[in-house]
Design goal:
heterodimer; A: eight-stranded parallel barrel; four-stranded antiparallel beta sheet; globular; B: 277 residues; seven-stranded antiparallel beta sheet; 33% strand
C-alpha cells in the first residue's frame, strides 16, 4: 500500500501536497479548508508590511489547455492581521501552516521574518520572485544570485524558523540562485513561482490583464517547473518544494522524481475544484501502486541518473 | 478533466433600460443558460472586471442591472446600444428553486435576481399566486421592477422608508406580515429567498429562523477573480468561496458563516464590520 505521508524540513506531512501561496489563501479559513480537503500543509498568500489592495480589474484569465495567467498584485491584510490569521488557524489544525513574506527592501524582509515568527509558523516561505510588481519595485531579488542571497541572510538573521526561498523562472540561471541561497543559509527552496507572460485581445488590441503582463501557471508552466526542480536538485542539498503545473497525481510524481520532497498545488483548484487535493492524492496512490513504489521518499530525484 | 468556466465572450448591448437614477439594465441577445441567483463578470478593456447579478434570462436574451458606483459601473452608465462588452459567466451557485409557496425579499438592485426567480418559476409552471414579491427602497424613485412583477401577476408588497409608495417602513416588516397571513390562511410559506444589502438579508434570515421557515440567501463579498482562485471572497470560519460555493447559500450554510451580518473583507482582506442600527 502506497504511503503518502512524508516529511520536509522537520514538518510532518500526511500528503506531500501543499497549498501553494497565492491561491485562495488570504485568510486562515482558506488554509484550513485546503487541509480538510487533503493538503499536507498550506501556505498563506504573501504578506507585506502594510495592507495591499492589489491590482484592480482583470487580474486572472485561464487560457488554452489547463493554463492560467494572473496579476493579482499581491493583495493581503498586512503583517499585523496576518499574524492573527495564522495563530487562529493553527489552533484548529495539527497540520503545518506556512507563512509567506514579501517585501521591496532587504530590511523589510528582515522585519517581516521577525514579526511573522510570533505566529510560530512551521516554515517561512520567502517570496523574492513575484513578477507582478516590477513596476513598483524594480528588478526582483530573484533575478540575481547576490540579491537573493542578501535577502536570505537577512531573513535567517531574524528568525529561527526554517525558511524556504521561492525561486523565480524569470532569471538567466535559476540553479545559480539556488546555490547562492543555500550558501546564504536557506533551509529549503520552493521551485518555482509563475513565469512572466502576456495575453493580448486581438479584437481590441489591448493586453487582457489590467497589469498588462502576469504570471503563467498551470499546464503551460509544468515543464518549466520540472526542469527548474531538476536543475536545482543537481546543485543543492537542501530539500525542494516543487511547484508549477501540478494538476494530477502524475504531475506530482514528475516533480518528485525531478527532486522535489513536497509539491505545491495551486491552479488545479480552479480546474478541478477545492477537492483537487483529495483527487491528486488518490491519483498518486494509484500511480505508485502501478509503479511499485511504497513511499514518497524513495521517488525523490529518481530521474537523476 | 473537466474544464472550469466559460472563457469570456464579447457581446454587443442589444438594449438599455433606465430603471432609476444611476441604475440601468443592459440586455444582451445571447444564450447565457443561467439560473436565478447566478452572476456574471462584466469586463471592460483597461477598467477590468466586476461581478454583476443577472436580473433576467429568457433563453434568448439576458439582462444585468447595474448601479453606477465605481469606475467600471460608471463607465457602463455611458454605454450605448451596440457597444461591445466582455461577459464571463454564468458563474456561481444559483438559488435552488425549491418551495411551493414562496416569498422573495429584494432590497435595492438585489431585487433583480428576485424578479428573475419569479419569472423563471412561472415559466416552469409555478402558479404566480404562490409567489410573494416584497421589494423595498428608501424612496419611490428607487423601487425596481414593480411594473415587471405586476405583469407577472405575483403578490406584490412594496415598502419605502419615507412612505412615498406602499407601506411606510422596512420590507422586513412586510415579510413578517406576509408570513403571518399565510400561516393564518392555512397555506403557510415554505421558502424565503432574499437578495439585497447584507443587514437586510441578516434580518430576513433571523425572521426565517424565528418562524421556522426555510430560506436561501444570495451573499455578496468583494471579488477579484470570480472563479475560485484568488480567495478574496472566502468567508469565515470554513473558507467557503462566495464566488463558487455561493453566492446563493441555504439556511444551514448561512447559519455556519460566522461573519454573515457581522463583517466582510475589503480588497486587502482586512475585516470591515457592518454598522448596526
Amino acid at each position: 500500500m502506497a504511503d503518502l505521508s512524508t516529511s520536509i524540513c522537520g514538518m510532518k506531512l500526511r500528503s506531500p501536497l501543499i497549498l501553494a501561496s497565492g491561491i485562495t489563501d488570504t485568510t486562515g479559513a482558506s488554509l484550513l479548508r485546503a487541509i480538510r480537503n487533503g493538503a499536507g500543509a498550506a501556505i498563506i498568500k504573501s504578506v507585506s508590511v502594510e495592507p495591499r489592495e492589489g491590482h484592480k480589474g482583470h487580474v486572472v484569465q485561464e487560457f488554452d489547455d489547463l493554463s492560467m495567467i494572473n496579476a493579482m498584485g499581491l493583495p493581503n491584510q498586512g503583517i499585523k492581521h496576518a499574524i492573527d490569521e495564522l495563530i487562529e488557524a493553527q489552533k484548529r489544525t495539527d497540520a503545518p501552516l506556512i507563512a509567506n513574506i514579501y517585501a521591496g527592501t532587504v530590511e523589510d524582509f528582515g522585519l517581516l521574518a521577525r514579526e511573522i515568527s510570533k505566529a510560530k509558523p512551521a516554515m517561512i516561505e520567502v517570496n523574492i520572485s513575484c513578477p507582478n510588481v516590477h513596476d513598483e519595485f524594480g528588478t526582483p531579488f530573484s533575478a540575481l544570485p547576490e540579491a537573493a542571497a542578501k535577502v536570505t541572510k537577512e531573513v535567517k538573521k531574524n528568525t529561527s524558523i526554517p525558511i524556504s526561498i521561492k525561486l523565480s523562472p524569470n532569471t538567466i540561471a535559476i540553479s545559480q540562485v539556488a546555490k547562492a541561497v543555500e550558501k546564504a543559509g536557506a533551509d529549503c527552496i520552493t521551485c518555482i513561482n509563475t513565469l512572466a507572460g502576456m495575453l493580448i485581445d486581438i479584437d481590441t488590441a489591448v493586453p487582457i490583464l489590467s497589469n498588462l503582463s502576469g504570471g503563467i501557471s498551470g499546464k503551460a508552466l509544468k515543464p518549466v517547473a520540472v526542469k527548474a526542480v531538476y536543475d536545482c536538485h543537481e546543485v543543492v542539498k537542501i530539500p525542494i518544494i516543487g511547484t508549477g503545473g501540478v494538476l494530477t497525481g502524475r504531475d506530482a510524481i514528475e516533480h518528485i522524481m525531478a527532486g522535489a520532497g513536497a509539491v505545491g498545488v495551486g491552479t488545479a483548484l480552479f480546474y478541478r475544484g477545492q477537492e483537487a487535493f483529495s483527487l491528486i492524492n488518490a491519483e498518486m496512490k494509484e500511480e505508485m501502486k502501478r509503479l511499485g513504489y511504497k513511499s514518497i521518499k524513495e521517488m525523490i530525484g529518481l530521474a537523476h541518473h | 478533466m473537466e474544464m472550469g468556466v466559460a472563457t469570456p465572450v464579447k457581446l454587443p448591448i442589444a438594449k438599455i433600460v433606465d430603471e432609476a437614477k444611476d441604475i440601468k439594465t443592459f440586455f444582451f441577445t445571447h444564450l447565457l443558460k443561467s439560473e436565478p441567483g447566478q452572476f456574471i463578470m462584466v469586463i471592460l478593456p483597461k477598467l477590468g472586471m466586476r461581478p454583476m447579478s443577472i436580473s433576467s434570462d429568457n433563453g434568448a436574451e439576458f439582462g444585468t442591472t447595474i448601479c453606477g458606483v465605481g469606475p467600471l459601473s460608471n463607465a457602463m452608465m455611458e454605454k450605448k446600444p451596440g457597444d461591445i462588452i466582455g461577459i464571463r459567466g454564468p458563474l456561481g451557485k444559483p438559488f435552488s428553486g425549491r418551495g411551493n409557496h414562496v416569498v422573495l425579499v429584494g432590497g435595492g438592485y438585489g431585487s433583480g435576481p428576485m424578479a428573475f426567480w419569479a419569472e423563471r418559476a412561472i415559466a416552469r409552471g409555478m402558479d404566480s399566486k404562490k409567489i410573494h414579491y416584497i421589494v423595498g427602497a428608501r424612496t419611490k424613485e428607487l423601487l425596481l421592477f414593480e411594473e415587471r412583477m405586476r405583469r407577472a401577476k405575483v403578490n406584490l408588497h412594496i415598502a419605502t422608508n419615507d412612505g412615498s409608495h406602499g407601506y411606510k417602513g422596512f420590507n422586513i416588516d412586510l415579510l413578517r406580515q406576509v408570513i403571518e397571513e399565510a400561516k393564518h390562511s392555512g397555506n403557510p410559506l415554505d421558502m424565503i429567498y432574499t437578495c439585497g444589502p447584507e443587514l437586510m438579508e441578516k434580518a430576513v434570515f433571523d425572521v426565517a429562523v424565528e418562524t421556522g421557515t426555510d430560506c436561501e440567501i444570495s451573499m455578496e463579498r468583494y471579488m477579484k477573480c470570480g472563479i475560485g482562485i484568488c480567495g478574496s471572497c472566502a468567508v469565515d470560519p470554513d473558507g467557503l468561496l462566495i464566488c463558487v460555493d455561493g453566492p446563493c447559500v441555504n439556511k444551514e450554510t448561512a447559519a455556519k458563516i460566522t461573519e454573515f451580518g457581522a463583517y466582510h473583507r475589503d480588497a486587502s482582506g482586512q475585516k470591515v464590520y457592518y454598522k448596526k442600527g
